[in-house]
Write a structure and sequence with these properties.
Number of domains: 1
Distance between the termini: 62 Å
Oligomer: single chain
Strand content: under 5%
Structural class: mainly alpha
Helix content: over 70%
Radius of gyration: 29 Å
Number of helices: 3
Number of strands: 2
Shape: rod-shaped
Strand order of the largest sheet: 1-2
Order of helices and strands: HEEHH
Length: 124
């Protein structure tokens, strides 16, 4: 007497496929790694998991792009502040500003630079 499978019961092959998909999604199974040659109806498992995981990988790609853009922006701000500090030192050396004015401007620029650097470390 053969046993009947319950509706919704998974076979060992489908359990393996689901495990491979979950491992791939978690980053433990990278593209090109062997899944033991498991194929699903003639379609390679990685093709299937790429299709199934596309929404997740697409959103992750968007977030990575946003983080990269924010990092570039803060690096640009830090460079602008550093340039302003250099110009400020030149103005002091040439006598175009007084020592008191230099100290006030330098303090403001250094505070701005510190905030940008704190923001950069939070992004990383």
């Amino acid at each position: 007497m053969s046993q009947r499978k319950k509706p919704g019961a998974r076979t060992n092959n489908s359990n393996f496929i689901i495990s491979a998909l979950l491992l791939r999604a978690a980053g433990f199974l990278l593209p090109g790694h062997s899944t033991g040659g498991c194929r699903l109806g003639g379609i390679d498992v990685f093709l299937v998991d790429d299709i199934l995981l596309f929404p997740v990988t697409g959103i992750l790609g968007i977030f990575r792009g946003i983080i990269n853009a924010a990092g570039q922006e803060t690096a640009s701000e830090a460079q602008d502040i550093t340039t302003s500090l250099s110009e400020l030192y030149m103005m002091l050396e040439t006598g175009r500003i007084s020592e008191q004015e230099f100290n006030a401007r330098e303090k403001t620029l250094l505070e701005q630079l510190e905030k940008v650097q704190e923001h950069t470390t939070r992004i990383e």
